[in-house]
Write a structure and sequence with these properties.
The protein is of the alpha+beta class. Helix content is 65%, strand content 9%. The strands form two sheets. It has a five-stranded mixed sheet, with helices on one face. Helix 12 crosses helix 13 and helix 13 (339-356) runs antiparallel to helix 15. 29% of the residues are buried.
Amino acid sequence: MSLPSRIRSGLRAAFRRWVNAQSVPEVLAASSVGAWLSLVALILVLLAAATWAPRAREFFGLDPGTALLCLGPALADFAFALLHRKRQHIEAWGWVLSLTGTTGLQFFVASLMAVSATQGATVFAGFFLFTAAFHGRLFRVTPRTPFLPVGTALALVLAALIARPENLPLFAVIGPASLMAELSLGTFALQHDRTAAEAERLRAAVQAQMLAQQERDVGRMSQALTEIISHSQDIREKLLSAGSAADLLKGLVARGGSLGRGEPERLVQQLHAELSHIRERVMEIHQKGRRYIGSDPEGVDLVPVLHSVRQSVGLRFPEVDIQVQAGREEPLRAWVRGGTTTLRRVVENLVTNACEGDGLRAAAAVRISARTEPLSGRLEMIISDDGPGFPPERLAAPIQGLSSTKPQGTGLGLYTSECLIRASGGLLERQNAPSGGAVLRVLLPREVRA
């Protein structure tokens, strides 16, 4: 393949990658007819103020006719808005038209900076920087898909051709700054989209796991009920037979034993056999119910899990003093869906969050305690630390994914842990300690052995 062919192929691949990364509803909303009419109204007010406000003409030195003439290339974006007024999808030609119109809009703002007096040019430079940053985020600009930065550079070059000589140094400063703003905010927006998609995938996986567990429970219960119903017919027949034997025995006693001598013994044996059969069926139904209902969740010994997590998390955070306090006076066995794996995942997420703090200030000590809660009889696990604690506004809001105080955090650890705890019939509570630091209180059903 020749060099021009490879270049064309690379450009097509980069363009497809850029199109696939876009948020179509967001672009259509930003380039709608209503948004354009609002923008035109804002431009007219801005030009009127810069022209006729007291002392504004001397400050900006702006010719409104020239400024409106420079707005012409931006009308390509207005054409995009008209052509996509009732569309929910953007074709390849639509993206090209949108890029052209966006470049024209940037040229208009850059031209205001170019033809204004030095003081006014500085104000419009701020507008241009904001516009470039907004477009970078809107169009997910990255170094691998630099289509809009090319348009931004073109807009700056064309505006510089008509710029006053004293404004050219401003172009030399604002040009690189605007390109960096586009790339930075575009890359950040793309990373945010990927994190949101991953969070949604994990949230869907947790919900699917919970739904699948519920479906398995319903299936087991349906199977148990089917078997119980089949046994109930047998029990009904045995009850009828036992009732008949009891009636015959009662009649025999009422007639003073006129039947054969061995007849009472036979009826008593038959009655005893039927009642024994009924008792066995009832016990079998009871055992089946216990097996189908109790096979999942599983009983898990909490203390070994806590010590295992303390050891593994301690290797990752050697500077944090992690201590476990759990008495051995009574067995601490939790009733958890998914067994040891789920419980370990929950505890590890919570202890890791405590060690990390808010990402800026970490905890120096983490304490994990476990006991049987006196009032409810459930297992109570408390994880406390001496870190920064929770912001008050987060304590008042429910736990959500994609919500974290850490610069690189997603909040999925706490969210996933709460989902798994609730799936086991438990509860997760958050609060701040009076002396500082966060306190997490987990309540789990306790396994009660017969």
